[in-house]
Amino acid sequence: MALSATYRLLLLGLLPAAAIMIYVNGQNYDPGLINFQPSESQSSPLLSFFPPEIGNSVRTGQIRMFTKDNLYEYVNGHAEYFISAGFLSMAAGEYQISGSESEGPDAIVDIYDLGKGIQAFGILADESGGTSRILETGAAGFKSEKGISFVKGQYYVKVSSYNEKISLDLFAGHIDRRIRSGTDPFPEFARFPEIGNALHTRFIREAYRGLDFLNNVIEREYSIREEKMQISLFTGKEDAVNNLVQSFMSFFRDSEIEYDTIVKNEKIIYSVNDPYEGEWMLIPLSNSLFGVYGSYNDSIIDTLTAGVQDQRK
User: Fold this and answer.
1) pLDDT at residue 184, rounded to an integer
2) 3-class DSSP state for residue 7?
3) Are 184 and 107 in contact (CB under 8 A)?
4) In 10 A of CB 260, how many CB atoms?
5) Nearby residues of 196 by Cβ (< 8 Å), 6 or more positions away
6) d(CA 179, CA 47)
7) 105: which residues sit within 8 A by CB, 6+ positions away?
8) Handedness of CA 237, 179, 203, 199 (dihedral sign)
9) Diameter of the chain by CA atoms?
10) pLDDT tens digits, residue range 102-116?
11) Is the pLDDT of residue 29 over 80?
């Protein structure tokens, strides 16, 4: 019993000594063991796109960041759609009118990073139902009674509000100006000719006109002297365009579709006599492939093959 009591006394004596050693070691910590750097989501460029104030509204709370892993928490049932379209990340910010007594936000701004401009436009085209147009900010977008959506480079922006005192155009303009550096310029629009009246522009992600090898196509519909026509555009490197032309040749051969080759502006184009689509033109350039359907004429073909759109990458 005496020996056991001695051990207990020794152990009690060691406790203060251990506490002193822990304290001393704590003063000599290695700073490299502690990482104060923000996480990838916290350092996202999306955070800089939300101004602290817009007009008479102020940003409230923290900007919420979402990735592929948790996007479903914000857009439940719609997350897979964005992810399949190239989604990288998303940020959501809330704004409230100064002095407002409303419990919830007066405006919500959602900014999606889709990685590429064409992928952001694909989302816009889908959600607008093909009714997108050029807004006052100069960006392509569409408006509804309670919201405004637009694309700026690789970003898809949605502004929503149920407060009549909120100016959706004002919000869109502020966000548009904040998104400047580091964006994919999305030059595809510039490749379409300025002819007639452009009615609609839409993006077809898969199987354009039922062709399983023709994906990621932009189509613009025109009205020219009460006649309508469509011009489709696929963009890619020269090898991708050449491979796509070979796929068309195989399709024509297997489907017994007749075509003639024509030379315009030193470029070979294909005049197709299609039993399903009627007569149309296939125009391969160095980094793009045009399809021309409907009431087109020689001047339009000349415009497309003149070299302005044939910008080598």
Assistant:
1) 56
2) helix
3) no
4) 9
5) 222, 223, 224, 225, 229
6) 11
7) 60, 94, 95, 96
8) negative
9) 113
10) 788 999 999 999 988
11) no
Residue 292 shares a structural domain with residue 173: no
The yes-or-no verdict on residue 43 having pLDDT over 80 is: no
Distance in angstroms (rounded) separating the CA atoms of residues 10 and 31 = 35
Burial class (CB in 10 A: 0-12, 13-18, 19+), 194: exposed
One domain for residues 143 and 167: yes
Quickly state the pLDDT bin for 198 (edges 50, 70, 90): confident
Token pair 């147009």 in the structure block, residue: 133
Nearest to 144 by CA among 123, 162, 121, 122: 162
Beta bridge partners of 274: 278
Instruction: Convert the pLDDT of each residue in 47-95 to its tens digit.
Output: 999 999 999 999 999 999 999 999 999 998 899 999 998 999 999 999 9
The C-alpha atoms of residue 111 and residue 233 are separated, in whole angstroms, by 27
What are 177's two structure tokens? 């100006």
Chain-wide mean pLDDT for the chain? 83
Q: What is the count of structural domains for the chain?
A: 2
Let me know if residue 26 belongs to a domain: no
Residues 242 and 248: their CA atoms lie apart, in Å, by: 10
- Give me 149's structure tokens: 């959506």
Lay out the sheet containing 258-264: strands in order across. Answer: 197-204, 217-224, 227-235, 288-294, 278-284, 267-274, 258-264
Q: What's the whole-number mean pLDDT along residues 170-192?
A: 78
CATH at 103: 3.40.1000
d(CA 156, CA 216): 17
In the DSSP assignment, the letter for residue 39 is P
